[in-house]
Amino acid sequence: MRHIIGLVAFLLAASLNAQQPAFITDSLSTYMKREMAAWNIPGAAVAVVKDGKVVVSQGYGVKEQGKSEAVNDETLFQIASCSKAFTTTALAVLHVEKKLSLDDSVVKFIPGFRLYDNYTSNACTVRDLVCHRIGLQTFQGDFANWGSNFTRAEIVGQLAKQKPVYGFRAAYGYCNAAYLTAGEIIPAVTGISWDQYVHDKFFVPLKMNRTSTTYEALMADNNKATGHSYFLGKNVSIPYDNINNLGPAGSINSCVKDLANWVMCQLDSGRFDGKQVIPFAALQETRKPHMPLPARTKGSHLASYCLGWQTMDYNGVQPFWHNGGTSGFVTTVCFVPELNLGIVVLTNTDQNNLYNALRLQIIDAYLKLPYKNYSQLSLVPFLKGRAAEDKEIAEWQKTVAAKPKLPLPASAFAGTYVNPVYGKMVVGVQKEKITCLFEHHPKIYGSLEYMGDSTFLCTYSTPLWGIKKAPFKIKDGKVTTITISVADFVDYMPYEFIRQ
């Protein structure tokens, strides 16, 4: 009898394997080894779900460069903005249950909510928050909020200080603080925190037993990947971001084994293990296109941001996906209803495009399209861009090494500086070394070295913020302001701090 059962299991597995494209059955491991080496990715994990079955759930490489502990399908990664779909799905469930309307004004649930002017403060709806159309440009405010000691309530309050770049509902601008605000509506309606709600409503019934929402839970886990980034010419291991304060926008930690269940539920109209976990009407609400995105490529003409998902037409099918990026990690979660296909790719370096490329590679394989190595196609411009950045920084460092003379004594630059959005920054001088310390990022500092023309080169203590120019303004022999910028990965905007 045992032989018969074993034979049946073998035949079923062989049948399932025969239905998968050769890229999945024969080439994926070789592809991952080759492309991870090309991108210098220490570790990754991939899940593929097809027709209600998990056909790939696999770790590749190591948790941390230079060490031997292998990634497996239960290894935790910070999935960053792939968290957003959990937030919008929670809101959509409450919408379907008529406990709120996505078109209700935010002030109905958070009376103190304010944007930059009275009209938008009162007109802004829950839907506006989660389709990125409140008028701020992409990442605006993240310099202050990401990894900072601001509380969730303080970040919501900070939105009133952010001067919009676009008109209200006029353009797409990716806003993490808006997603946090949307998540804070959940406790206002249910009395349950966002963290507890997504745990009880999604993680538990979907058997996402390894998934959590906090920095502390990640730190307490022994099976987690270490993040890596490129800094000063090499790949380095970096600390985990503590983004509990932005939870609904990006604080979930998960693994491909768990996320396979999440996409399986998406593909089965909200069912999992034969039970209706999420109303299908709620899932449909999250998939409605709202804001147009650039998309004109071969095989695709239209793309949109929905609610926690992006979508586009692609060679006759409509994928839904969202990417995530935090310090040391980039990730993607995707499903394609027409193909009954789900894809999860997690990587432990923030300097790669393999996660994006592999998503397309797998979709192409199931569409039986000719093989095109998207990873290599994107690697060439990526390396060219990095080389240009390295060259620019080397030129800046050469300028610093020439030791141009300061226009004023170093002590003249010392003092407390204030930006209305960020708060305080202190410039200090010790033995002619000038540093800047940040009130809301006490573990981060910048080392300032003079370049000439009242401008300093600011090398931050974290690769996340990078190396940037920091110009001072001097008027009547006195320093009046300094303008601070950080890496585009965090925030595109410059922030002017006024000396007190």
Architecture overview:
The chain has 500 residues and is α+β, with helices and mostly antiparallel strands. It has two domains: 2-372, 3-Layer(aba) Sandwich (Beta-lactamase); 405-499, Lipocalin (Beta Barrel), CATH 2.40.128. Helix content is 33%, strand content 24%. It has 15 helices and 22 strands. The strands form five sheets. Strands 2-1-14-13-12-11-10-9 form an eight-stranded antiparallel β-sheet, with helices on both faces. The longest helix is centred in the C-terminal third of the chain and has 28 residues, at 374-401. The termini are far apart. The model is unreliable at 7-15 (pLDDT under 50).
Keywords:
500 residues; Beta-lactamase; Lipocalin; 8-stranded antiparallel beta sheet; 15 helices; 33% helix
Topology summary:
Blueprint: H1 2-18, H2 22-39, E1 43-50, E2 53-61, E3 77-78, H3 84-96, H4 118-123, H5 126-130, H6 142-145, H7 152-158, H8 176-190, H9 194-203, H10 215-219, E4 228-231, E5 234-237, H11 247-250, E6 253-254, H12 256-267, E7 271-272, E8 275-276, H13 280-286, E9 291-293, E10 303-305, E11 310-312, E12 320-326, E13 329-336, E14 341-347, H14 354-367, H15 374-401, E15 415-419, E16 423-430, E17 433-438, E18 441-452, E19 455-460, E20 467-475, E21 478-484, E22 495-499
Helix pairs in contact: 3-8, 3-13, 7-8, 14-15
Helical/strand content category = alpha+beta
CATH topology of the largest domain: Beta-lactamase
Instruction: Kindly provide the radius of gyration, computed on alpha-carbon positions and rounded to a whole number of angstroms.
Output: 24 Å
The total count of helices amounts to 15
- What global shape is seen? globular
Which second-level CATH architecture of the largest domain applies?
3-Layer(aba) Sandwich
The total strand number stands at 22
CATH class of the largest domain: Alpha Beta
CATH H-tier superfamily of the largest domain: DD-peptidase/beta-lactamase superfamily
Beta content comes to: 15-25%
Mean pLDDT: 95
How are strands sequenced across the largest beta sheet?
A: 2-1-14-13-12-11-10-9
Uncertain segments: 7-15
How many separate structural domains? Answer: 2
The separation of the N and C termini measures: 84 Å
* Biggest beta sheet attributes: 8 strands, antiparallel
Helix content: 25-40%
